[in-house]
Structure formats: structure tokens, C-alpha cells
Amino acid sequence: xxxxxxxxxxxxxxxxxxxxxxxxxxxxxxxxxxxxxxxxxxxxxxxxxxxxxxxxxxxxxxxxxxxxxxxxxxxxxxxxxxxxxxxxxxxxxxxxxxxxxxxxxxxxxxxxxxxxxxxxxxxxxxxxxxxxxxxxxxxxxxxxxxxxxxxxxxxxxxxxxxxxxxxxxxxxxxxxxxxxxxxxxxxxxxxxxxxxxxxxxxxxxxxxxxxxxxxxxxxxxxxxxxxxxxxxxxxxxxxxxxxxxxxxxxxxxxxxxxxxxxxxxxxxxxxxxxxxxx
Length: 278
Known about the structure:
By secondary structure, the chain is an alpha/beta fold. The protein has a domain at about 5-100 and about 135-195 and about 265-275: Rossmann fold, CATH 3.40.50.300. About 45% of the residues lie in helices and about 10% in strands. The chain is built from 13 helices and 5 strands. The protein has helices at about 15-25, 50-55, 60, 80-85, 100-115, 120-130, 130-135, 140-145, 160-165, 165-175, 200-220, 225-230, 250-270, and strands at about 5-10, 30, 65-70, 95-100, 155-160. A 5-stranded parallel β-sheet has the order 2-3-1-4-5.
């Protein structure tokens, strides 16, 4: 049975797709090609390890890789995930990538606008879904993982630092995962991915997303249909009407005040400087 040696556990809208593509570019690292986010430890745990194993290489091929894993950004938030993950002996490394919490919540809004799940302003979004602000209090969720994993088993990347110092990030990831530090392609990590925008054909795009989610969630063998659509560039057919409505300056100031103590708490917890979030 081939199971992961590492997991990316979050946070959503904090560079998980960027991290997935970066890791996929290293020849000694395996991340699933069939499905980028597996959601095993939260949504599909009842399907069992044999289903989970199907996303990873066969034992005859696994020896080609020094690190095998997957990135599902919601794992950080589920209180039952740390214990479930810790029960798999092969998983000894976790990667958590964090983004300025106010930019993260705005990016979540942008994604919902893109998918047709939200049509109002960012301020309307916060009023309708006040719980999204809670997801920016990262330290509360990270402490749950420290109950099950040693600190040196969890690599915490700060998105703003990671993308600004790409060479340093590649080196840190390689050392953490036990792979060659010089085998990331030079161009890996340079591309902007998963950008938020408003499709011109919003209703058609929203319908296509619902179909894709249904295929992935309820039809285990139809991942290839969704992946084919991505390779063919079907998303581009819906057009690009520009970015979602901007965040008001007073809203940004309010969120900065809301998260001020959390930023200090996280600095202390991680022993790192988060001046880039202020």
C-alpha cells in the first residue's frame, strides 16, 4: 500500500495551487495528477484507505519518489483531521501555507463571485457570512496540530515571504521533504495561478462548476472528464469581465484591527516576523 509521506493542510486561498504546482515540478516529489485536492481526511474518510491509496503511485513505481503527498487546504480547519492524519504512520511531514488573513478572506470572496455563489459587494459577503473572518485566526487551528505533531514536523510557509524569495522557498521545501535541493526547475513557481475574476457568462460558468463538483464528489471514476476540460481550456470560453468588486478602505482598516492581535500571536507562535501583514 502506498500512502503519503507528507500533506499540505491549508490554508484555503493562501497559495495551495501554487504550492501544488511547485512541488509537482520536482522529479522526486509525487502529488496526485488525477485530483489536486483529495479531501480524504475530512469529506471522504469513510471511503477507506484503499480509496485514498488510489490517488498515489503503485508500490512498483513509488520507489521513484522520495516524497509522496497531497494538498487539501481545508484540513487545517477540521478539528478531527489532526488525529486522523496522525493515525497514518507514513505521514511524518505537514506543510501549512498562510496568507495575510484579510487578503485571504477577500480572495475567498473573489472565488465565490467567480463561481456564481456570491453577487454582492465584499462588505455584503462579510455581512452574510461572518464566519469567514474566523478562518483567519490561524493560530487557533495550528495549535490543534501541535497536539499530535512535533513542531519540526510542520513547515509553515508565509505566502508573501515564500513567493518573494522563491529560491529560499525551494530550498526549504526540499530540505524539509528530504529531496534534492537543486532539482526544482528554475521557472517553477513563477506563474500566477488560480486568479479570481468575474466570468462574462456567469450563469453558464457557475453551472459548469456545479457539474464538475458533482462529478468529483459523487462519481469516483470521472475525474478524467473534469481534467480534460481543464486541459482544453474550457474555462476561458466563459470570458473575463475583470476582477471582483474591490474592498473598501474602511473595511481593510477594520479587518487589520480585527486581526492585529492574531498577527502578534502567530509571530510569537512561529517565532517569525509578519510585518508584511501590517
